[in-house]
Predict the 3D structure of the following.
Amino acid sequence: MKKALLIMTIATFAASAQAQEDNFPYNNEQFADIQMLRYKVEGFENLTLRQKTLIYYLSEAALQGRDILWDQNGRYNLRIRRILETIYTNYTGDRTTEDWKAFEVYLKRVWFSNGIHHHYGCEKFEPGFSEKWFRDVLKTITPPDECLHYDMEEILPVIFDPTVMPMRTNQRDGEDLVLTSAGNYYGEGVTQAEAELFYAQRKPADDPCPIMMGYNSRLVKENGVLREKVWREHGLYGQAITKIIENLQQARPYCETERQQRVIDKLIEYYRTGDLRTFDEYSILWLQATEDLVDFVNGFTETYGDPLGMKASWESIVNFKDLEATARTEKLSANAQWFEDHSPVDPRFKKENVKGISAKVITAAILGGDLYPSTAIGINLPNSDWVRRDYGSKSVTIGNLTDAYNKSARGSGMGKEFVIDKETLDLIERYGDLCDDLHTDLHECLGHGSGKLLPGTDPDSLKAYGSAIEEGRADLFGLYYVADPKLVELGLTPNADAYKSQYYTYMQNGLLTQLVRIKPGQNIEEAHMRNRAFIAHWVLEHGKADKVVELVKIKGKTYVRINDYEALRGLFGELLAEVQRIKSEGDYEAARKLVETYGVKVDPAIHREVLERYERLHLSPYKGFINPVYTALRDSNGNIIDVRISYTEGYAEQMLRYSREYNNLPDVN
Ligand code: ZN
């Protein structure tokens, strides 16, 4: 499971048009609905040569699987990428025309999505240039590259005809999700009913440790018979998998522990056999390997791309522990009982023995496959239910990516547009990122783990309101404690005022700015957005008489004004107690009322105003990352003597280089 970028980057946008604290170039180019960013691999230079070398080879392994994802996302993607790149590099005509500019944007979008469908919405891109222009350009490319010998009459409709493969992953209820999805997880002609029957028949009756069936294969129909083509060495995608194995083997001697070497050995065994039992064994070894500074994910992992949610897309991330930030989460966890004992919740609902979760904070070193360029800021793996049940999971937050999102948002103009005055803006500028991280830590490490159900309460009694209530509970726990003197005492906040930055951005987000993600006329549906809305609107309403928080109009624009921060903390505490009661008692009716009254409906006038103000800032709703480049310096015997990192490669440059250097799969797989 991955935690996607939540609304927080819109919320924090700490600064006005102030310069960034460091001169690192976080922001890169912008096109269509995308903003490209760079992330800084803080601390890489201070690693040992052994650690750097390990990261180097694991990074190579992370990039070798790129073509797999392209093919998984659609069976024409590799051919289309190769045509587009051939034109992009060899075109000698006018590169200033509207058609050419539209072509460039199209190619950049295809690169970003690892295919011809939108990475998030899944709809097929509409080229902004005409088919005629494209055909004419093809004729001018000399010398004709081999990929221009493709059957264009087969491929051009895939690009230009909106009725051909319109959706990558179709989730519309009532349609044949397999037939109508362009993803390449099922062969041509396989229907949803056939696929479901195929796997239902193979499901063992009562296996307490079932493998994740269908997880690493394409289901195809050959001569009317269904069979799986397994992704493994010498199998489907074998050419790329062989390269991944080679790099894992080169990384192996540089592991810091024997345990991690066993992880790599098991992963290679799984890549060779494709055996899903071996994969479960690997997952257990992987989640138990926690002492190493360097860690990685490499493999078929998340199933969001398969409309039936069984088959996993290929991804990789290489990372190392952020020791400073991890110390922060460990400090909170070590004091978990203190926080539980002092919360404003009714003692009947408190845990006598609470254990904090010390989530590891990591620094990403490279992103690959389905984590590139669009990525996650938190990862919780493995996905196997029984492995999680019996062995637990590894949960990480990716500190340097969150940081890059925050830094890039500086100067976006959001702060200037939506924060009420200079004084508040300065406060957010100074403490915004810090307190936002702390709030996330409190939410993850303590909030979710606090409190208990009364005996006999069904954990599912809040039904559809369960997630909004649970997320709200964890958020409120974080809001209540981010203002506590205990945090200053623990050295986690610098002073007694810093928390105000979090209070302001939280209220502003819940009341105003998160609405930029909602289309006009629609309600709030997503659980995290509902929880922020119900918290913000509830305290607004309950602090009305004392004017604790207000929405005020200044020169026709609506702003949040917080008049009494201490009283606001009191209200958060009151609501925390009530939400905990709802959860502990399983009070469905109260949950429904709270969420429906405060968390769902949108004031159309405010919504319209927020959308207009946001529109004028010309910000991109989606962001992704350019990877750094690692260069191995070798002595005359070929031994690595240092690994250098650089951040100068451009977006198109990187994509073209990856297509050259990690060109591991044939056109048709
Ligand atoms: Zn949560």
